[in-house]
Amino acid sequence: MRADASPPQAVILAGGLGTRMRPRTEHTPKFLLPVAGRPFGAWLLERLAAAGFGEVILCVGHLGDAIRGAMGERFAGMPLRYADDGPELLGTAGALRRALLHLAPVFLMTYGDSYLPFDYQAPLRDLRAHPGALGTMAVYRNEGRLDASNTAVSSDLVARYEKRRADDPPDPALDHIDYGATALRREVVEALPAGAPLGFEAVQRDLAARGRLRALPVAERFYEIGSEQGLRDLEAALTAAREGRG
C-alpha cells in the first residue's frame, strides 16, 4: 500500500471493448483511436500532465498490450503504471479493485474515452476539503441533451445516481450527468469484492444513497469518443483550438 501521492494521481479506465465504435475498435482500443491527427490517449495524457498530475494508472483490458506499446512507461514527464483486468473483463469498478495496490489514498478516476475541458484537479481539492465525503463527482447540467442524464443534485451532494439508456423514459429529477471525473478515497475501492466483475455505476449509486458523494458542477460540456458523433465533436473542438478558433 502506497503513501499519498504528491503531485496527485489520476486513474484512467481504458479496458472496455468499445462495442459502439466497431469496427474501429476490433483491432484498436478506444484509447488509441486517432483524433485530430493523434491517438486519443495522447490528448488525454497531455491534459492530465498540464493539470499537474504526477502519475497515471492505466487500467487496461481489451487490447491492453497495444496501449502499453504505444504509450510506454512515461508520457510528458509522468510515470505510467498499468493494471490489467486479466483474462476476464472486470468492469469499471472491478478494474479499480484490481489496481488497488497502485492507488493513492485520494485519487482522480476518469475514463479512457472522455476528454474534459475543465480543471481535472478540482474534484480532488473538493474531496480533500470535505473529510466526511468518500467521493466528489464532477457533474454537468445536461437535461438530456448530450446523453441520457443520470444524476440528481441537491445542494452540494449527488442525491441520486441512476445509469440510463438513451431510450429510457425521461426522469425530470435526473437533470445532471456524470461529467466523467470523480475523486475517490482508496477505502471505497478497498471495500469492493476482489476479482468480481462490477460496474462503477454501482459504486456511484451506493455513495449517493449514503450521502457520501459530493457534486462538483462544471459549466462547459464534456467530450467523449464512445460514439461516432462524440468523436466528430471532439475532433472539431480540438482542431478549432489548434487553429485558434476555439
Automatic annotation (TrEMBL):
CDD domains, alphabetized: NTP_transferase_WcbM_like
Gene3D superfamilies for the chain: Spore Coat Polysaccharide Biosynthesis Protein SpsA, Chain A
Record keywords, A-Z: Transferase
SUPFAM superfamilies: Nucleotide-diphospho-sugar transferases
Pfam families with a match to the protein in the record: NTP_transf_3
Residues annotated as domain MobA-like NTP transferase: 10-143
Keyword Protease: no
Entry GO MF terms: nucleotidyltransferase activity
Transmembrane annotation, as ranges: none
Name of this chain's protein: Nucleotidyl transferase
